[in-house]
Amino acid sequence: MKKLFKYFFAVALLASVFQVANAQQKFAYVNSQAILENLPEVKAADAEIQTLQEQLQKKAQEKVQAFRTKMMELQQQRDAGELSPKQLEEESQKLQADETELQQFQGQMQTQIMQKQQSLLQPIQEKIQKAIDDVAVEDGYTFVFDLSTGVLMYADESTNITEKVKAKLSSTGE
Question: What Cα–Cα distance (Å) separates residue 14 from each residue in 1, 2, 8, 18, 117?
Fold first, then answer.
């Protein structure tokens, strides 16, 4: 039974491959990275992300400096014999809690930056995708490959629609 299923599957697969090969297919490629580099929205988004990153890094540096200061003060108090063993243990535990909090802040910082990138860049990527879709439909392309992903092994320059997509984006003025 399994052999029969495999046989029918292979026949169906070959039939679909031949059908696709016989159909008139039109291919094109686009360089989405080149499109992204020229959009003012991307430059504005990058600037906003950079600003957020700098603010968060400054805050992180302040927290690290405060942690180091507490640690140095605790070492000085310990070396001077100002703390009992119990006090030293309590202060060490507080310092460990501060260190854990600092590590959590650094993780949250990365998450915030990634979320900001996603929220700013997703609408731009959707806009580009719509322009690619529009050009593909208008020109009757069956497939459009993205050259910037490195997946395409060969492409005839005459099938490059990058400039048409840029023109489409410019003409929509969004």
Answer: 20, 18, 10, 6, 44
Neighbours of 31 (CB within 10 A): 20
3-state secondary structure of 164: helix
What is the rounded CA–CA span in Å between residue 9 and residue 26? 27
Q: By three-state DSSP, how is residue 160 classified?
A: strand
Please report, for residues 1, 36, 122, 156, 167, the alpha-carbon distance to residue 41 in angstroms, rounded to integers and kept in the order given: 58, 9, 11, 30, 16
Name the phi and psi angles at 150, rounded to 5: 80, 10
Mean pLDDT, 10 residues at a time, the chain of 174 residues: 50 49 75 90 95 96 94 90 88 92 94 96 92 89 85 69 91 71
* Residue pair 168/130 in contact by the 8 Å Cβ criterion: no
The single-letter code of the amino acid at 126 is E
DSSP-assigned states of every residue in 103-131: HHHHHHHHHHHHHHHHHHHHHHHHHHHHH
Residue 16: the pLDDT is 54
What token pair was written down for 164? 């048409």
- Supply the pTM of this predicted model: 0.67
Distance CA 105, CA 56 (A): 9
Closest to 36 (Cα-Cα) out of 124, 133, 144, 150:
124
